Every structure is written in structure tokens, then in C-alpha cells.
Amino acid sequence: MEIFNNNKTYDFMGKKIAFLSISGILIVASIFLLLTRGLNYGIDFVGGTIVQVKYDKAAPLDKIREVLENSKYAGSNVTEFGTKEEITIRFTGSSSSVTNDISDEMNKILVPTGNFEIRKIDMVGAKVGAELREKGIMALSMALLAMLIYIAARFEWRFAIASIIGLIHDVIITLGLISLFKIDVNLDMIAAILTLVGYTINDTIIVNDRIRESLQITKERDLDALINDSVSRTLSRTVLTSSTTQLAVLTMLIFGGEIIYAFSFTLFVGIIIGTYSSIFVVSPFIKFLGFNTDSYRSKQAIKAANRKEKEKLRAMYEQGRV
Amino acid sequence: MKIFNFKLTIFLISIIFGVVFSFPSLMQTDYGKKVNLGLDLQGGLHMLLGVNTEEAVASKLKSIATAIKYFSDDEELLIDGLTVNDNSIYFSILDSDEIAKMDKMLKEIKGLDIAKEDLEYKVSLSSEEIVKTKEYSVVQAVETIRNRLDQFGLSEPTVIRQGDSDIVVQLPGIKTAQDEKAARDLISKAAKLELMAVDEDRMDRVYQMTSKEATAFGDVILEDTNDSNKKYLVKEIPILDGSQIVDAQVAFSQSNQPIINFTLNSAGARIFGDFTAKSVGKRLAIVLDGKVYSAPNINERIGGGSGQISGGFTVQEAGNVAIALRSGALLASVNLLEKRSVGPSLGADSIKASMIALVSGTILIFLFMIFYYRRAGIIANIALLANVFILLAVIALFGATLTLPGMAGIILTLGMAIDANVIINERIREVLRTGASVHKAIEDGYSNAIRAIMDGNITTFLVAIVLYAYGSGAIKGFAVTISIGILTSMLTSILGTHGIYQAIMSKIAKDKNNKKWFGVA
User: Fold this and answer.
1) pLDDT-based confidence at A5, cuts 50/70/90?
2) Three-state secondary structure of B70-116
3) DSSP codes of every residue in A133-158
4) Domains of chain A and any CATH numbers
5) In chain B, where does the domain assigned CATH 3.30.1360.200 lie?
6) For the Protein export membrane protein SecD/SecF C-terminal domain, which residue ranges apply (chain A) (predicted)?
7) Choice between B199 and B310, residue whose per-residue pLDDT is larger
8) Secondary structure of residue A182 in the 3-state scheme
């Protein structure tokens, strides 16, 4: 079976203004959302406590709220979690005593609400939250820097910048959607975003590689034509890989339940955006940054000539003639 | 026809390796190394504890004061006003002839700053000594907590230091709230045993006294462990602290109440003997973690260096106190910075959910690949399946821990592994369309695709390394699975499939309709 006829070249560059406008609108909307509505930081980053409780029948939400209001945990946020039986109780405080514990207290307070089991307690002190946040941001920025350097070394600096722009594009829009759908941002989410970064940079590199290859094997001087041809030829692969990965993610989204919902949601929207950007967004930036086919080829030619010269010299040394 | 080419041989050996070493994890056998499941998957308790290192410094100073007191009593030096205040010990010596003796003794204790004005002494710890003491208190806390948890009989507790003054404690397989509470009690119990002299002269006035007044006399007011209305006035500088304990065991008193017998080392025994000989008729307060357990009258000199703590323990409590005493006191208390506890049922649910996702996702990919690439798809699927086995085997052998984010790493890896085959197959199709032979199509397909695949994989590998270096727990787990996955997927999807094609090349070449092998009409 074949989806895309590989011999057809689509005119992506001709429509770049349209695509970039769509991206621009999405980015502006995302930034607006991030600034106004913000992200729903989970306790991993701001500190606080989440208690996940499962009842043997539908959880009596009103009763739970009532007993909590009469305890020291007044003001807690009680919500259903995935199913009717399961709830989470969330509050901002945290306890620093090892012996006198929230789980012990919760076990006592919730007694009048029925048969339950405390399935999970996450308690993060404010200081640790700040540390985790810093470390997460640090890890993400160092990863971006490492990719920037590698792509610049393997391809050309304009490819590197364009790829990173594409990456930032994907991350911002994904974060915008996370904000729109009020998904909790926790450590799992960082892992999801990192998965996304790994995935989408891979996509971009495949396209970049094709452009580089075309530069070497054809004499095409027009960058637009060259990019159109390269993107068209990788289109089949890009769409296929996205679909196969999306199949896996979709099953996570459907069967994975509440536990990995945030994770699979992020991947699901991220992969769509990442695929879109590697086809429509990254390549125009290579052009905007002033990439020039002729000067690239002449630089490559000089490099090749230098390499040949060195090999010649080495051969002469090895044969004992200088 | 040569079937076993170099690449295929390596691939087959890796498959055998993968199947053999992933077997224990998949079948949950008792033999061999299994994949370590993270606490989020198997349930358990994770805590990040902070060590209050300042307390260790204060306590060190106090024990130096104890030494000074013991020395001056022993040598019959007359000193006065021995107090510990603001990180320094103050006292004055009454006879100027004895200054040399005192100086000599203080010199033997390392790391002290001594300021002297006539007969007035001010002794404090040097700044290097303070740093050293803080450092040691963390190291000691790690060892002590590990020791206690080992004796408590929990399976595979992890106690590791993190950063300057933090400790990560992980207790997999904690099943009930009671178990958890017992473990937490054991970890946090300071287990600081002090034997203190009751200030008999002023004891009668203890209920009228404020703690400030007590300090002025060099005393402290302590509560009774069973009755917080009952108070004792004891000398602030203890006769002995818990560091001289060598053993502690649960025993039963004549009235069949659990008590704890402790044994002191020889130095402790000597101090204890000397003190009891001098203090017949007075009371000795046995103080554990700042509470008085009992204050028996001293009837005679107690030699042999053993004593007992009684005071309304349950059998289980007595057992835990004995473990804590044996493992030594915490030089500094710990506080809770982060706690994550996952019930066993939730862990099981998480595994189930992610396994369903993983398996159904993989099956969908399998079907899709066969549908789209026909036989080439089957070959890609063989590589993918082999990849799963080898990945599990390597994770098990490395002793890496599999967490939920790690599972996500596996899914990404499978995505990238199948991506390599998609790229290769697309390249092969391209060459086939030009009308070239199958042999040329396959060889060109691989050589054209390899550069893009390598660049993609190396970039992701770099990301993984950076994440491992800078990330915290969950992110590290993700980084480990990704890096292992990249290596195994290159082995299976590039080398393995290429080996298969080379082995069956002549068969494909003979097939007149050989484009169908790659799903091309």
C-alpha cells in the first residue's frame, strides 16, 4: 500500500505565509493563555499534598467535603478522579514531621464517609517543589543547547536554529493546549514534554537530512524547489511514523486511564503539532535565516578539497615520499 | 547460498540474549535478575528527609561539656558555672594552679577554639570542625537509618544521600498504613539516651520554676514520658549519652512488663560506675529523646556497665526502641521534605494500564506495518519484538529501575525503532521505483537511510545524557530507558533487518513479483 506518490512534489514553500500565519496565531494564542490563565502547576512544583482515595462504592463527595471542613484540612479541594469511586483531596500545606503524618490523620478523619482505601499520597514541601522546578527547567534548556550544538555541527548553524525554533514552536503550542484543557503539570508532564522533544527533533532531522542530501546530489539552485522536493519525498515517512506512534499514544489515552492521562494527552497533541511543524514550519526558517545553496555547496566543495589534499599528503607520507 | 551472514548472526545472538535474560522478568521466576519496578509501579513509600545538621553541632558541644565535667570531677578540679550557650561552653576555674591541667585536657580534644580571660573559659568549635560535624551527621544518619531498616526486616530498603543534607529513603512493598507508620517511627526516632543527675537540692521547687530559672542553675526541666504533669529537674550536662551504648535488648521485668536492657562500653561503664559510687542516695534520670522514662534511686555503685529502661512500653515499642538504641542515636533529627506513598493496588493498576497501552499499541503497529509494507513489515515487526526483549533484558541486567516515565521512554523507543524501518523501507521503495534490482534497492536503501537515522538517534541520545546529568528521579529513569532503547533499536532495526534481507536476498531476487515484498504495486 502507498499513501503518497513519491514522484509528486508539493509546493510547501509557496504556501509558507499561510502556514506560518496559522503557527503565528497559535503561538500568540498559546502565550496569551499561558500569561492569563497560566499553567495548572501540580504539587510537584509548588509544594502541597494530594491524597488519592478509593471507596468501595460511589464516593460521597458532599459528606467528604463536610468532614474535611470540620477538620484542620478545611479548604481542601475534593474532586472525582477518573471513576465515581475514586477521589483526590488536594491542599496546599505539607507536613514536615516524619512521625505525625497526613495519612494517619486522613485515615481517622474520613472514617464517617464509608469504606475506603488510601491509594496514594504525594506530599511535596515548598522548598523541594522549587528545586524540582529549577531542575526541570535546567534539564530542558541543557537538552535544547546540546541539540543546537549537535545539529549545527552536523548540518549548518541555520539548520540548527530553524530546528530549535520548530521545537520551541511545538513546546509553546503544546503548553498552550495544556493550559486550555487545565491539565495538571507535574513531573510526569516534564517527561512527556521531553518525549515530545525527542520525537519532534527526530522528525525535523529526517527532513533536514533530505535537504542536505539533495544539496549534494542535485544541482538545483532554487532553495524553494529543493525544500519542496525534500519535504515531499519524506512526507510519506513523516506521516507514517506519526500515525504509528499516534496509534500507540491513542491506546494509552483510551486504556491508560486517569493515571497516565496527562502524559498521553501531552504526547497526543504534541505529536500532531510536531509533525505539522517539521513539514510546514522548520524549512521556511532555513530560508529566512539566509541559507544559500550556492555558498553552502562552495563551502562543502572547499571542505572536500581540503580533505582530499590531506589524504594525498598522508598517502605521500605513508609511501615515504615527501 | 550463504544464510548466516555476519549481521544476522549478531542479531540472532542478541535475540537469544534478550529472551534468556528477560525471561525472569516476564515470567516472574525466582531465578535471575528481574526488572526493578519503581515505587510508582509496585507501591511503597518514598521519602526525602532533611537532616537538621545544626542540632548535631549543638549536641557535639554538649558532649564536650560532659567530658569537661567528667574530667574536672575525676581530677578534682574545681570549676564553676559550666553552661552551654550560643554555640559555646562557658565555665570558670577556681584555682589558677590548675589551668595547665585543664588546658592540656582541652588540647587533646580536636577542633576547638579556646578563648580564655583570667580564669574564665569560653570553648567553641572551630569553623572546620563545624563543617565536619555537619557532614558527619548526614553520613551517620544515612548509616543509622539503613541499619535500623535492615533490622526491622523490610525488603530492600534504599537509603541514599542526596545533596548536602538530604536523604532519600525508599521502602518498596509497604502494604499497610500500620507498617508505614512503624517504619516512619523507626526512621525518625532520635534514640538519644541520656543518663542525667537529678538536681536533688532544687528538685522540690520544680513546679514553681520556669525553664529560664532552671537554666540559670545549669539545670533543665524534663517531663515524664507517661504523665506530662510530672516534672523532673535534672542537671543540664548529662553524665553519659547514648554514644557509649554497645547493645540493647528487650527483656521483661518481674511484673512481666517489657523493659530494655542496655550495655555500655568500657569507658561508659567506668564513668557510670564512678558516678553511681559518688551519688548513692540520689536519683538518676533515664532520659530518652528528652523525656524521663524513670528516675530510680541509686542504692549502690553500679559496675559492669549495664542498666535498664522501664516505663510503659508495649512489646512492639520496646522492640523498636531497642533497634533504634542498638543502631545508635541520630546525631541530628530529620524532617520530612517530600513524601510519596503509593498503595499496592494503585501500583498494580498502573502496571495494568501501561501494559494494556503498551501491548495494544504494539499490536496496532504490527498490523499497520504488515498492512502497509507486507513482508517487509513482517521483518520490521520481528526486529521490533526482538527490541522489546533485548530492552527488558538490558534493563534487568543493569539493575535500572522501571518507572511510569520509564515506560513512556519504552514507548518512544518503539516509535523510533519502527521509524528506522519506515525510513529504510521508504528508501528501498524509492530505489525500486527507478527500476533497479532488488539487491541494489536494499543495499542503497540502507546506505541512504542510515545517515538520517543516526543523526536522529544521536540527537536523542545526547538529550538523554543531558537529562540524566541534570534531571531528578523520574527524569533520570526516563533518560536511562531512552538511551538503552536507542542502542537496542539500532541493533535490531538497522543491523538485524539488514541481516535478514541479506540472508534471504537470493530468494527475493528469484521472485518475479518481488516489489510486492515491500508493498509496492
Assistant:
1) low
2) HHHHHCCCCEEEEEEECCEEEEEECCHHHHHHHHHHHHHCCCEEEEE
3) HHHHHHHHHHHHHHHHHHHHHHS-HH
4) 13-40+129-291 (1.20.1640.10), 48-124 (3.30.70.3400)
5) 140-340
6) 114-290
7) B199
8) coil
Interface check B369 vs A, CB under 8 A = yes
By C-alpha distance, the chain A residue nearest B339 is: A123
Domain formed by B6-43+343-518, architecture: Up-down Bundle (1.20)
Q: A99-120: per-residue pLDDT in tens?
A: 777 878 888 888 888 899 888 8
pLDDT at B112 over 70: yes
Region(s) of chain B under CATH 1.20.1640.10: 6-43+343-518
Quote the strand ranges of chain A, DSSP E: 40-41, 48-55, 77-81, 83-91, 116-124, 184-185
Average of pLDDT values for B273-286?
A: 87
ipTM of the complex model:
0.84
Task: Give the per-residue pLDDT at B290.
Answer: 84
Q: Name the closest residue on chain A to residue B372, using Cα atoms.
A: A1
B-chain residues near A256 (CB < 8 A) = 353-354, 356-357
Sign of CA dihedral B257, B258, B261, B262: negative
Within 140-179 of A, beta carbons closer than 8 Å to B belong to 142-143, 145-147, 150-151, 154
pTM over 0.90, yes/no: no
Q: Which CATH number among 3.30.365.10, 3.40.1190.10, 3.90.79.10, 3.30.1360.200 corresponds to the domain B140-340?
A: 3.30.1360.200
Give yes or no for a contact between A85 and A56, defined as CB atoms under 8 angstroms apart.
Answer: yes
CB of B280 within 8 Å of a chain A CB? The answer is no
Angle at A133 between CA A129 and CA A137, to 5 degrees: 170
Task: Report domain B55-129's class.
Answer: alpha beta
Chain B residues closer than 8 Å to A206 by CB: 423, 452, 456
Model confidence at B109: pLDDT above 90: no
A143, closest residue in chain B (CA to CA): B463
pLDDT tens, B328-387? 778 788 888 888 888 888 888 888 887 887 888 888 889 999 999 999 999 999 999 999
